[in-house]
Predict the 3D structure of the following.
Amino acid sequence: MTTSTPQDLVERALGLSRAHACMVLVRERSRTDLRWAGGSLTTNGAARSRSVTVVAVAEGPGGTQVGVVERGGLRDEELEELVRAAEAAASSAIPTEEAVPLVGPGEAGSGGDWDAPPAATGVEVFTETARGLGRVFGASGGSGRLHYGFAQHSMVTTYLGSSTGLRLRHDQPEGTIEMNTRGEGADPRSAWVGRGTRDFTDVDPEALDAELARRAEWASRQVDLPAGRHEVVMPPEAVADMMVPLYFDSGARDAYEGRSALSSSDGGGGTRLGERIAGLPLDLLSDPRYPGLECAPFTVTGSPGRDVSAFDNGMPLRRTEWISEGVLRALGQTRATARTTGMKATGFIDNLALEMPGATDGVQEMVERTERGLLLTCLWYIRSVDPQTMLQTGLTRDGVYLVEDGRVTGAVNNFRFNESPLGLLRRATEAGASVPALSREAGSMFPRTAMPPLRIPDFNMSTVSKAS
């Protein structure tokens, strides 16, 4: 492994480059995890790694060409070979449509202390969490419930340098905890809860297990229901399951070219910007400084893609309202796409929040106002069916509960569903207060979300599922 500092690697790689322009990203990663099964801790571990990405930009007869090569476990003497590999990849690449001048220091966002050593995490981050889990295991004897789950925490320090003189650094802490409870033997009860966190100081395993115990008690009565359209209350975690795909599929370029559900419906090209797409005055936004969901305040990527481009590395990222008071206001786009669409460049921000201004109620208050419906706590195996409508399909899992006269009266069978997040926003009749919420489907790759509970009067449960 290399003995050079990340900063040294950036400077040496840029000094070795013969390309028209060059960008270098060094990522220092440390990760630790904790797992448990049955009713005891089973494994824990820690790891560290480093990756170096070189983005070489060449000017060919047909236009600008880009080569990207990333390596882990790099030795000092292999750095020049990595730089040459990126240059060779650029010389053989087809010209890119994303080419724009690289961001310079005067245009860039703000970063951390470039000269400081990388930040790191370790098993000590779990000290209080492990103690809390021990109390959970000790108190659950005779409950008929088994405990499973895992927690992970990582720290990624990214150093970004370019031939324009750009030097930026960002430290990203990231943690998740997921807890499952299952009944012993043939007991069908199962439930899941999860949380995202920056440092585990805000994680209370006993409170999470209390929620699992409550759901297990609800499931002591099992009810079979047919498929169809049901009124549902979706807790924030289930809302996150559906809003993350909406965010990922909200690129301006695809919309402008008529390829997405956010393309203009008149067939004349363009987008649905300015159109009301939510029935309630909801705001969907991303903000690098959102409390508890803080993320990089500048673009950093090795990809020269359609929605996120390495040509934008260093571009400042600020609070962006994608939907404001129910109206579509912005789409994600690179600086190159913005030249085509005539809109403002709005880079990808690594968090997402859905908010209903003035809303204060939580899931419990919404359940109490439900005459008959379902409490839909967990979705999984979500896949895109039709990009033109943003239709998603997936399954329910670990907790669909029947609500009658304002209280939960039992657990029902699982379903396959077919729904579009745009359809949910259009048809939602009630929203509560937003809280940090971990998507079960996407939380491992996109954990920084805050969502409200939503009431959907006609959620489409297309078939009964035998999944358990």
In short: DSSP finds nine helices and 22 strands in the chain. The longest helix spans residues 79-92. The longest strand covers residues 40-60. The two ends are 45 Å apart (CA to CA).
